Amino acid sequence: MSKDILVIGGGIAGIQSSLDLAEMGVKVHLVEKLPSIGGKMAQLDKTFPTNDCAI
Amino acid sequence: MLDVGRHPNIDLLAYSEIEKVEGEAGNFKITVRRKARYVEEDKCTGCGACKEKCPTIVPDAFNEGLGERKAIYSWFAQGIPSTHTIDSNYCRQLQGKKCGVCAKTCQAGAINFEQKDRIVELTVGAIIVAAGYDVFDPVKIPEYRYKKIPNVVTAIEFERLLSASGPTAGHLDRPSDRAIEAEIEALEKKAAKSQKLVAKFEEQFNQSSADFYAKFQKGEYKDDEERNKWAEKYKEHLTIVEPLEVMKKKAEGFTAAKRLAFIQCVGSRDFRFYPFCSGYCCMHSIKEAIIAHEHGPDTTSTIFGMDIRAIGKGFEEYKIRGGNHSNISYVRGRVAEIQDGPENNPIVVYEDTKERMVKSQEFDMVILATACAPTKGIYELADKLGIELDAYDFIKTSPLSPVDTSKPGIFVCGCAGAPMDVPESVAQASSAAERAAEVAFEGDVRKEKAVA
Ligand SMILES: Cc1cc2nc3c(=O)[nH]c(=O)nc-3n(C[C@H](O)[C@H](O)[C@H](O)COP(=O)(O)OP(=O)(O)OC[C@H]3O[C@@H](n4cnc5c(N)ncnc54)[C@H](O)[C@@H]3O)c2cc1C
Ligand code: SF4
């Protein structure tokens, strides 16, 4: 039985899952195929509905 | 994002892929391939001195090909990890040519052309799939002439044009204008070279080329071998300079795009492609129109859609605010065709369903609100994980357990499961985290307890 968790994909969804688990004290392995995490959201200028900066 | 990079509980394996998955809930054995970056992660400080010196120019995928990067690059400026990567498809050294400029520049000694892929083995109790989506390729809709008419772009390309860190530093320069400007730059370099050649003759004979060439064309100096060479070089020079002048004149009139059209449901709610509504594209068109208006207060936007779907907290208000304060008009109708117009202005042909008339209108730029498509790699990944896909190739879930996949211990969140916006992706992410922790820590409670 392992208590580690694997997250595949480092977009906003994978980042949020990883942070939630890490804050619970769980060890997370986050695998992202691109050179950096961020996914599509990193490509966005700002996000609706608040128009906050995406990164 | 920064928090992920420095959280002691997160082991970040970027530039990596899942190779193999074995086992079951509580005890999965995972093989991960860490692809060679040819840069040592623990040495690279992310300073970027290498990419300043790298001579190899490559289209920048992060900027949707609208800008350029070098063969050694960071995915984007604030990327985590900030470790640079060498693109082996383009790097001169890795293509067997002589170079290695980056290695000479790097103060940290981080460049390693000998680096190989590494294999990492992990044992985990549960898995969360957050592999996201791809933007639908509108080339599949020939009547919209994407890639044929330069000023027809996708919404994600438009995001990069709006971004201060993007290829135009946030100016709404039209792709057709940028292409001409790039051509001017290339021709100016060529012109400077040929000017040098011509200048040599001018010095030698102490005469201007224009004056000489006028006489030469009248038949003077026909037997002079040197002057024949001069005439030839000058003729060549003119074939560069003359079109260059025409282009420069044209470029003087270039202004930022001011009349924008947004076309909704490109690939979505279309039975030829995806019958579903992608959910977020009405909202991102409104957003892009609002931001464009912030950049240029005389910008006007027309959003063409069957209906505008603004379903979410604060969304309808956002839509109305856009209409009232950002020069946005909403036209109810489906766009039939985009035609090429004068001055590279696309013409939108549509049916105005309120007035029951077919109309056409010219714009500076057209933005396509493309569907949320399943990500290319999902078939291979689902196969390795042993999970099922749904009718559209998103990961299969059921309405009462929206983050559970078909295999116990494997969960999904975000657009890997279905099209959704950021707030929904984040909510699902927390939900998937909680479900995964349940499995890893106490066995799946849902197996033993009642399901809603
Ligand atoms: C033009 C445009 C504008 C938008 N604007 C907004 C907005 O303003 N507000 C809003 O709420 N939503 C907006 N959206 C929607 C938003 O992009 C998505 O809701 C969100 O990005 C989904 O996040 P995700 O993490 O599920 O997917 P993604 O962002 O796609 O992330 C998936 C990650 O997984 C990685 N990955 C994929 N396959 C693998 C694999 N096999 N192994 C390892 N890693 C893998 C990818 O490289 C990527 O980093 C917009 C969408 C578009 C197209
Ligand atoms: S969100 Fe709007 S543009 Fe996107 S598919 Fe649904 S109705 Fe069409």
Automatic annotation (TrEMBL), chain A:
Pfam families: FAD_oxidored
InterPro entries: HdrA-like
Alphabetical keyword list: Iron, Iron-sulfur, Metal-binding, Oxidoreductase
Keyword Iron recorded: yes
Top-level taxonomic group: Bacteria
Keyword Oxidoreductase: yes
GO molecular function, one term: iron-sulfur cluster binding
Gene3D superfamilies referenced in this protein's UniProt entry, alphabetically: NAD(P)-binding Rossmann-like Domain
Record's protein name: FAD/NAD(P)-binding domain-containing protein
Native source species: uncultured Desulfobacterium sp
UniProtKB/TrEMBL annotation, chain B:
UniProt keyword annotations, A-Z: 4Fe-4S, Coiled coil, FAD, Flavoprotein, Iron, Iron-sulfur, Metal-binding, Oxidoreductase
Cofactor: FAD
Gene Ontology molecular-function annotations: 4 iron, 4 sulfur cluster binding; metal ion binding; oxidoreductase activity
Pfam families, alphabetized: Fer4
Protein name: 4Fe-4S binding domain protein
PROSITE patterns hit by this protein: 4FE4S_FER_1, 4FE4S_FER_2
InterPro entries reported for this sequence: 4Fe4S_Fe-S-bd, 4Fe4S_Fe_S_CS, FAD/NAD-bd_sf, HdrA-like
Organism field: uncultured Desulfobacterium sp
Coiled-coil regions listed in the entry: 177-204
Stretches assigned to the 4Fe-4S ferredoxin-type domain: 35-64, 82-116
Family under the similarity heading: Belongs to the HdrA family.
Record's signal peptide: none
